[in-house]
Design a protein that fits this description.
Porin, Opacity protein, single chain, OMP/PagP_B-barrel, 9 strands, 1 helix, signal, mainly beta, Beta-barrel_OMP_2
């Protein structure tokens, strides 16, 4: 994760684009990237992160020169990894969502923004994969609640009016298992394109 963050900072530092990066036009776009997802809470030892991906659509609605509202909808592979080194046991608890965040975006400098907002997650798949590196080994489960309310916050950099990179952290306020202090925790990094 350190290398991804360093690459993100390096891209921001090196990129010098003379074109205006903020657009006063309504824009739609697509984005995708990588997730490092796990769960956290008092009732569960924090397991290793499951590495997966996200992909979806967004719209940016300018309100002023520095402020935009950005609704999104995207598929997100979440869950966590279960490993036991001495027994060489490796499994993934795969929980996939359709996430719908409503992001408030503030441009600090030309192209560079901070953003945050609520996220509504709808579970579409849940399984325990005992053989995550091959086909098969999947066991359907039904332990995770169908809805997750979270808060997303992150940084983004828009290059010109179309291309952007972003890094974001999302914490789930909802208990993912009924009456248990276990919450989603996802770090994501990706790229996108505005049309």
């Amino acid at each position: 994760m350190k290398n991804l963050f360093s690459a993100f900072i390096c891209l921001i530092t090196i990129s010098t684009v003379s074109a205006q990066s903020w657009s006063d036009n309504f824009q739609i776009g697509a984005k995708g990237g990588i997730n490092f997802a796990t769960v956290t809470g008092d009732d569960f030892d924090s397991p290793d992160a499951r590495t997966s991906f996200y992909a979806g659509l967004l719209a940016e609605i300018p309100v002023s020169e520095r402020f935009s509202i950005q609704p999104e909808v995207f598929y997100s592979g979440q869950g966590f990894d279960i490993t036991d080194e001495p027994d060489e046991f490796d499994a993934e608890y795969q929980v996939d969502y359709i996430n719908v965040p409503l992001i408030l975006k503030f441009y600090i400098l030309d192209g560079f923004n901070i953003h945050a907002g609520p996220q509504f997650g709808f579970k579409i798949n849940e399984e325990l994969d005992f053989d995550p590196n091959n086909d098969g080994g999947d066991t359907d489960t039904d332990q995770i609640k169908d809805f997750d309310l979270g808060l997303s916050a992150g940084l983004g950099y828009k290059i010109g009016e179309n291309f952007f990179v972003e890094a974001r952290y999302t914490y789930g306020f909802s208990e993912v298992i009924e009456d248990t202090d276990v919450h989603n925790s996802v770090f994501s990094a990706g790229i996108g394109f505005m049309f």
